[in-house]
Amino acid sequence: xxxxxxxxxxxxxxxxxxxxxxxxxxxxxxxxxxxxxxxxxxxxxxxxxxxxxxxxxxxxxxxxxxxxxxxxxxxxxxxxxxxxxxxxxxxxxxxxxxxxxxxxxxxxxxxxxxxxxxxxxxxxxxxxxxxxxxxxxxxxxxxxxxxxxxxxxxxxxxxxxxxxxxxxxxxxxxxxxxxxxxxxxxxxxxxxxxxxxxxxxxxxxxxxxxxxxxxxxxxxxxxxxxxxxxxxxxxxxxxxxxxxxxxxxxxxxxxxxxxxxxxxxxxxxxxxxxxxxxxxxxxxxxxxxxxxxxxxxxxxxxxxxxxxxxxxxxxxxxxxxxxxxxxxxxxxxxxxxxxxxxxxxxxxxxxxxxxxxxxxxxxxxxxxxxxxxxxxxxxxxxxxxxxxxxxxxxxxxxxxxxxxxxxxxxxxxxxxxxxxx
Length: 421
Prior knowledge:
Largest sheet: 7 strands, antiparallel
Structural class: alpha+beta
């Protein structure tokens, strides 16, 4: 990763997507005196190092992150026809007429202190309606390119290649096409989505176990951090290794019969976790090595999650996780949040955005009110998004108690009355 490129997530907006009928705005901006912030040196903007999104099930939390993932994939993959066919916008379907309207997406981000605003609207059949890209770094907003259907106007200082317009089909984002044919745009702008921005599901953190282990074997600094965080999190794991075994010939021949399976590696790799073994006097005898099946789900999710977490902290990028608390104790969630808040472990101002049902974080006094967001959905299926900062609260208020009492909304309405049989 190129550490000379500093990235930051500022704002994201979406409309007519999933349960979001009207436009909703999510941002990382905050006050100068807020906790857990950093500032863009060339501007007066202060941004949060983490934000936490709460809300009932089916209220829009995951949909918001899915919209971010959609933008990320659309920019990186819109010229890939196979991917594009599967990657389509999902308009609001709970009200007549919205299925025929375009979905809207906008993101404001920073690369090396330069601020950009990019948006596009797209129909359900993948046809691009509008697309715009602006440079907000100067005193006035500068249009880098503007598109309506297949009519594209481009600032010659941004890109001076008329052929790129012809290469842009009705389902291709112009920014994607430009990044394919212009190395400077690809490295300095689209880089934000390719390397600086990652959206993952908390339920799939364990899938990163091989990446955590293999990266640690190759990078001693990375491994030291993994061992340190495992020790701090009290998993009693002292070390780990990768055991390589050749795929048995019988199994290899069986797999070859399935044409959808490609055997690119002749080895089966298994991560083994080392634990101390004691005698009856509680003295250390040696270590025992456990298979992943012998570890808890929480252990595996935490270990796998360390791959994207340490990468983000090391490179100052944006990590977005849906349901961070999946299989993790509340204290572990807080530990991960603290990693992003600490200047020692987060020297490059990486940002963490996540959804959760872990309300204990609302009671933490070292998390600022600006860091809490909520989603809720009305009886017509329309979701809304709002920040705790929109409520007038005294410093030191018990946000957890107030949230659970219904002061902020964003709670499920559960009918607990049951008729007697």
